[in-house]
Amino acid sequence: MSAAELSGATPAEGKRTAKKVDRHPWDWYVEQAWVTHRLCDVVELERHVHYIDPTCGNCTIPQALTDRGFMAFGTDKFQRTNSPLFLNEHDFIGDQMLLIEHWHPLSIVMNPPFSCQDGKLVRGLAEKFVRKALAIATHKVAVLLPVKWLASAGRVRLFQDFPPSIYILSERPSMPPGDKIEELGERLAWKRGKVDYMWVVWDLQAPRLNHARTFWIPPRPKLATDAQLPLEMAA
């Protein structure tokens, strides 16, 4: 996602804010494991399917899926983790495909870059990842995106051709730059987020709908204090 999304700024404000916000040049922003666990809580994921996160970063999504008993792996344009679930460096929206991307049955779960690559603005970047995933997956495609992604004249055709189900996270997740987490420390890195996020889910095995269904994922139950709130667990 972009620095504008992190700050809650409008696109025009984002241009002014970009100089002040320490934006990752490849839009590497990290979700916590509970975000994926919440997806597993509300969406029926198939057990016999291979799961790939092609923008895996620290392999948070593959690890969360593995913890839930699924067979999951990750790839990314750059290796940013030593996780055994990381398979290879790979440009998912490039011309080449990995062997695992030909595996069937296949589902894709990801938190893709939103609009920036190598420090440059790339319009429609997240949609490119979505369309590639829809082209190769056989079962489900689940994509973590800012809620504002739905409001776009340019993506009307995508939603008309492939109506998704929308799962809005009532609890705003933190999304710090992956290279700043250690510097920030856990308390600052994982404090309450400022941007509304959702899981956009396509079920390629289900009958096609002519509309998008919308659901709300409840927040995790709160403990006595924020300091006690579990960072890596879903309710």
Please outline the major beta sheet: 8 strands, mixed
Briefly, what CATH class? Alpha Beta
- The CATH topology label is Rossmann fold
> With helices defined by DSSP (H or I, 4 residues minimum), what is the helix count?
8
Shape: globular
Query: Helix fraction?
Result: 10-25%
Supply Rg: 17 Å
Helix-strand category: alpha/beta
- The whole-number mean of residue pLDDT values reads 82
Q: What distance lies between the first and last C-alpha atoms, to the nearest angstrom?
A: 26 Å
What is the number of domains?
1
Percent of sequence in beta strands: 15-25%
Regions with little confidence, pLDDT below 50 for 5+ residues: 1-20, 223-235
What is the name of the CATH architecture?
Answer: 3-Layer(aba) Sandwich
Number of strands: 10
CATH superfamily: Vaccinia Virus protein VP39
Walk me through the structure.
This protein has 235 residues and is of the alpha/beta class. It has one domain (3-228): Rossmann fold. Helices cover 24% and strands 20% of the residues. It has helices at residues 3-7, 11-17, 33-42, 60-67, 125-136, 156-161, 181-184, 186-189; strands at residues 50-53, 71-76, 86-89, 106-110, 116-117, 120-121, 140-146, 165-169, 197-203, 213-217. It has an 8-stranded mixed sheet, sandwiched between helices. Strands 5-6 form a two-stranded antiparallel ribbon. A hairpin with a 2-residue loop joins strand 5 and strand 6 (120-121). Helix 3 (33-42) packs across helix 4. It is globular and about 45 Å long.
